[in-house]
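Severity: low
Component: inverse-folding endpoint
Summary: output formatting inconsistent between runs
Steps to reproduce: submit the following structure tokens with default settings.
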């Protein structure tokens, strides 16, 4: 029972972007390839996506394939990771049903991520119950797979805290059964929350400030050219701000010393480039060209792999189908354990028939 298991996932409400990439995807591939984990489960969270898209199921349905292609193209490998669709694992609903009794309404109301999301969606008094309770269902996602490790962005921290509380409460009442998970955040600060190309706090489809993993080279180029920098940095000779400057935040997330040797050999590293920008005498165009070169280098193999998988949609379908079967078997085992601990496995253990027990 000391195995190390990863579970994480994404809502299929749109194609995945650079924010997802540096916040979680890149790390997942590294962990998958590290050999340090006994199992890796990657979930397309369609049921969670429906909690605030009940009236637009087509959007969720259409994006399942997009997210699967995003996964495969960044290098998640079905031979090493089980990729599956959440709603095919109906055991997750049953787990959620029992976990709901272990969480209070006021505890859910205090969840900071849920609070922000309610504001963002203008739900106010019209919060769907399913949406309000999705942290509970997310605890089911995690515990169904005995996950020890959940690589995710900072915004998922309250979800993990909630899951840990449910695990502790369950184990306290019914005896040791569930595994307490931990979040694994990106170590680089710039990766915790990559800003949008417009400099706003977060990449978000509704703000139109995303660079998608599936964007063409021309789209990436155009988006980098119009990126937000320092609005006070008007002439090349002006001193510029690096803080709050999206181009530099992206460089913090992507630039490595070898990129300088390859694309901008006048500078040894990012610190030198920043110092020059701060002093004045370094134009935005030059910095953006450097960022673009790095992004194209990172994204072009992803784009190429995507093309290969797009040419084999049937293979993608088969991969999701068998991944979902594997996931379902694991969740069914956990559910059996849960029912046993709760002593509601009536037809396995018939001791309830005897009034003495
Ligand atoms: N809430 C996650 C997101 O919005 C998606 C998700 C659903 C998830 N279930 C999960 C992430 C379990 C990690 C673990 O991106």
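Observed output (run 2 of 3):
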């Amino acid at each position: 029972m000391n195995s190390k298991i990863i579970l994480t996932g994404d809502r299929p409400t749109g194609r995945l972007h650079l924010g997802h990439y540096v916040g979680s995807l890149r790390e997942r591939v590294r962990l998958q390839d590290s050999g340090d984990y006994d199992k890796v489960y990657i979930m397309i969270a369609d049921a969670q996506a429906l909690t605030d898209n009940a009236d637009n199921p087509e959007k969720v349905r259409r994006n399942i394939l997009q997210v699967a292609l995003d996964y495969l193209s960044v290098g998640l490998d079905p031979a090493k990771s089980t990729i599956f669709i959440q709603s095919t694992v109906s055991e997750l609903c049953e787990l959620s049903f029992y976990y709901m009794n272990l969480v209070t309404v006021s505890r859910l109301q205090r969840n900071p991520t849920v609070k922000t999301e309610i504001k963002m969606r203008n739900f106010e008094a019209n919060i769907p119950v399913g949406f309000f309770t999705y942290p509970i269902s997310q605890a089911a996602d995690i515990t169904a797979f005995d996950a020890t490790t959940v690589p995710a962005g900072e915004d998922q921290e309250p979800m993990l805290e909630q899951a840990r509380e449910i695990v502790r409460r369950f184990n306290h009442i019914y005896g040791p059964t569930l595994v307490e998970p931990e979040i694994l955040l990106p170590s680089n600060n710039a990766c915790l929350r990559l800003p949008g190309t417009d400099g706003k706090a977060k990449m978000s489809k509704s703000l139109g400030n995303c660079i998608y993993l599936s964007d063409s080279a021309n789209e990436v180029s155009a988006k980098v050219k119009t990126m937000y920098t320092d609005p006070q940095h008007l002439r090349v000779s002006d001193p510029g701000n690096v803080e709050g400057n999206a181009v530099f935040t992206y460089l913090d997330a992507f630039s490595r010393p070898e990129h300088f040797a390859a694309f901008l050999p006048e500078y040894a590293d990012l610190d030198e480039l920043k110092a020059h920008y701060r002093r004045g005498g370094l134009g935005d165009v030059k910095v953006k060209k450097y960022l673009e070169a790095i992004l194209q280098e990172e994204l072009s193999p992803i784009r190429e792999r995507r093309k290969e998988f797009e040419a084999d949609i049937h293979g993608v379908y088969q991969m999701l189908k068998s991944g979902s079967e594997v996931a379902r078997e694991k969740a069914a085992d956990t559910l059996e354990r849960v029912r046993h601990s709760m002593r509601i496995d009536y037809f396995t253990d018939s001791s309830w028939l005897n009034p003495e027990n």
